[in-house]
């Protein structure tokens, strides 16, 4: 298996995404794709900043290049995006967050997400999924026993909208969890339930703990803050290793 110097580099937050937009069977029929190999694919489900957020696309580029896979970032929000300036300022009074989440609820988006995963499964030998925040519940659903064989491995980064039932049902494939220490969405109770349940169910899992950082640090941490920069780099490296293990080594 080949390696390169890029495997040790951090994020290029000030870079330009190198992928392209293609038609894809989602609500808005589009996805960002960045490719490095034809034998394995990863579906990346972003947080509420959406599929076209530069950090997400740069992260997809890193995963594609370093894990040697093709990464798809579909638009699961039907072309809608939240005002990023307000999000970054946490000016939630300026945002119809409730309406946005209602329009992109689990019940509405799950059929589309499953359809995308099935499409990738039909086209690639190995398939993985990674989801941050909103995308966290998604990958646990893809790992559910009822969908066995849909994906070969998943990664959940600071998941939100996750339920204990999602965790209970996630028995179909290896799971990596990337969990910041401070997280109101992925609570200490849910973290404990994840660890105990996956262990009880005999699921192969990797629990990555990120001390001293908060929810969203893996995709929107500041590169100027050493702990946040370190979390972003460590999270990216852990994801690369996980995908290389299950999508590349596992295919050999």
TrEMBL record:
Domain Dienelactone hydrolase span(s) in chain numbering: 36-244
InterPro entries named in the record: AB_hydrolase_fold, Dienelactn_hydro
Molecular function as annotated in GO: hydrolase activity
Pfam family, one: DLH
Protein name: Dienelactone hydrolase domain-containing protein
């Amino acid at each position: 298996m080949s390696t390169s110097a890029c495997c040790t580099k951090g994020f290029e937050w000030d870079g330009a995404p190198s992928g392209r937009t293609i038609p894809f069977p989602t609500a808005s029929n589009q996805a960002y794709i960045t490719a490095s190999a034809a034998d394995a694919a990863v579906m990346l489900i972003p947080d509420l900043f959406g599929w076209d957020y530069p950090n997400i696309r740069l992260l997809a580029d890193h995963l594609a290049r370093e894990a040697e896979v093709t990464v798809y970032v579909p638009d699961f929000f039907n072309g809608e995006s939240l005002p990023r300036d307000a999000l970054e300022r946490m000016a939630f009074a300026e945002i119809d967050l409730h309406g946005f989440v209602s329009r992109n609820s689990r019940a509405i988006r799950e059929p589309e997400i499953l359809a995308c995963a099935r499409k990738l499964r039909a086209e690639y030998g190995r398939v993985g999924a990674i989801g941050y925040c909103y995308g966290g519940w998604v990958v646990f659903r893809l790992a559910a026993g009822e969908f066995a064989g849909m994906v070969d491995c998943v990664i959940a980064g600071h998941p939100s909208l996750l339920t204990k039932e999602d965790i209970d049902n996630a028995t179909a494939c290896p799971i990596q969890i990337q969990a910041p220490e401070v997280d109101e969405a992925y609570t200490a109770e849910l973290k404990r339930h994840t660890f105990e349940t996956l262990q009880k169910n005999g699921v192969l899992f990797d629990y990555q703990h990120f001390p001293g950082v908060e929810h969203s640090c893996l995709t929107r941490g500041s590169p100027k803050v050493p702990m946040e920069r370190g979390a972003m780099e460590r999270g990216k490296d852990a994801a690369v290793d996980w995908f290389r293990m299950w999508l590349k080594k596992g295919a050999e």
